[in-house]
């Protein structure tokens, strides 16, 4: 379809690496390179070796502000941290995203990338189930050693290769939503069974993270997607959801977890996200201030460095008591402001708003095997709610998945536009 000649074996090898690309742990190293960096370097190397006079698709004019933020962050990383950190960002986030767009040359490639994200989710589901039921972290046990919030309702919050259960929950939520999108495309029966299994496992392990923010994101996004499918299907799916919810509450009660307590905690957490004070009953620890306190602490810490921040990699520390110092910034926007100042924060907001605006304009494009739920429409709903949720979590581990979804959206538009041009010429 497009002038992008690459050895088929090399393309398959890159796709295989892309399955692991968004889920590799960031803090595992081989010499000076993290596993994520090594995976990214392999992708770039194989692409260069396998390319045969490939014509590079000019990606920067598509969703400009997305690329602008990635470049600004790379510049700030080089200037405020070190060259290696900036170089790693360029390879991992920018160049891999460009390569992904170059590789996707057909509708089949789009579905293949989505399938890889879901296959990785199945792998994570198996890890998550083992962690929760064995009460043992398999991959990053040292990070969670002594962590007071690892247990909720008597369940170990699975995290897999991610640095926090919330990030694991978000990955599984997004994978489940992509599986739901594929289930509502034109598929063979065998494929549908496979996607149903993947969807079920992703949803179960997402709930096992006991991450109320990730669960809220999933439920809200799922409901919107169901509504977009039309009245008849919406009623059918809503009835199924109601029955499953009732069954889940009964199951929780059977295992000694009071369902109404979880629901109460869920809404308390939502209140805390928007600034209301409250304490979830699942934790015996009194909350160390609300979100507005955190804004004040970070802004005061940044002080006169508000233009460029305290530097990429700078660590936050606020002494609350003689025995506790807060080191985490649970708001992604605030985290970027702390490290990159107003320059980074404005670039980030422009990137998010620009991405939503870009895909909103492309929402009418569709592929032959899609029904009412097109990838662009699903992506739009995911992005809007995800950006809202970033007021309650750092992106960190999820940056690669975010870049992959955006790149896939750009490639999707490229293919749809090509198909439209072909139809017009005939």
Automatic annotation (TrEMBL):
Report TM segments: 28-50, 62-81, 87-104, 116-142, 162-181, 201-228, 234-252, 333-353, 374-393
Alphabetical UniProt keywords: Membrane, Transmembrane, Transmembrane helix
| InterPro entries recorded | WaaL-like
The superkingdom of the source organism is Bacteria
PANTHER family xrefs: LIPOPOLYSACCHARIDE BIOSYNTHESIS PROTEIN PA4999-RELATED, TEICHURONIC ACID BIOSYNTHESIS PROTEIN TUAE
- What is the protein's given name? O-antigen ligase domain-containing protein
């Amino acid at each position: 379809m497009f002038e992008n000649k690459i050895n088929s074996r090399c393309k398959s090898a890159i796709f295989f690496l892309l399955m692991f690309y968004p889920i590799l742990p960031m803090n595992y190293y081989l010499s000076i390179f993290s596993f994520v960096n090594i995976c990214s370097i392999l992708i770039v190397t194989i692409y260069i070796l396998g390319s045969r006079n490939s014509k590079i698709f000019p990606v920067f004019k598509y969703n400009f502000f997305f690329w602008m933020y990635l470049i600004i962050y790379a510049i700030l990383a080089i200037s405020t941290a070190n060259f290696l950190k900036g170089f790693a960002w360029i390879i991992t986030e920018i160049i891999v995203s460009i390569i992904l767009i170059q590789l996707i040359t057909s509708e089949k490639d789009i579905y293949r990338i989505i399938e890889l994200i879901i296959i990785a989710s199945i792998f994570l589901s198996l890890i998550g189930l083992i962690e929760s039921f064995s009460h043992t972290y398999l991959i990053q046990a040292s990070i969670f050693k002594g962590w007071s919030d690892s247990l909720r309702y008597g369940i170990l919050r699975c995290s897999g290769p991610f640095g926090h259960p919330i990030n694991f929950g978000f990955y599984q939520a997004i994978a489940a939503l992509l599986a739901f999108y594929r289930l509502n495309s034109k598929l063979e029966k065998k494929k549908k069974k496979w996607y149903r299994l993947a969807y079920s496992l992703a949803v179960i392990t997402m709930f096992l993270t006991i991450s109320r923010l990730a669960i809220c994101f999933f439920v809200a996004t799922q409901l919107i997607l169901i509504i977009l499918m039309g009245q008849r299907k919406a009623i059918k799916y809503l009835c199924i959801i109601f029955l499953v919810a009732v069954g889940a509450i009964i199951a929780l009660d059977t295992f000694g977890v009071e369902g109404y307590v979880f629901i109460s905690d869920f809404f308390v957490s939502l209140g805390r996200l928007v600034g209301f004070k409250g304490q979830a009953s699942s934790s015996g620890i009194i909350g160390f201030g609300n979100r507005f306190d955190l804004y004040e602490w970070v802004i005061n810490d940044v002080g006169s460095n508000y233009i460029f921040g305290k530097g990429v990699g700078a660590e936050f520390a606020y002494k609350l008591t003689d025995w506790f110092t807060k080191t985490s910034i649970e708001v992604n926007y605030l985290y970027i402001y702390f490290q990159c100042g107003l320059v980074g924060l404005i670039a980030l907001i422009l990137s998010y708003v620009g991405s939503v605006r870009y895909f909103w304009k492309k929402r009418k494009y569709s592929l032959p095997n899609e029904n009412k739920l097109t990838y662009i429409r699903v992506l739009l709903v995911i992005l809007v709610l995800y950006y809202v949720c970033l007021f309650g979590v750092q992106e960190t581990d999820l940056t690669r998945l975010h870049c992959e979804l955006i790149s896939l959206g750009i490639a999707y538009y490229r293919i749809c536009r090509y198909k439209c041009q072909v139809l017009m010429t005939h």
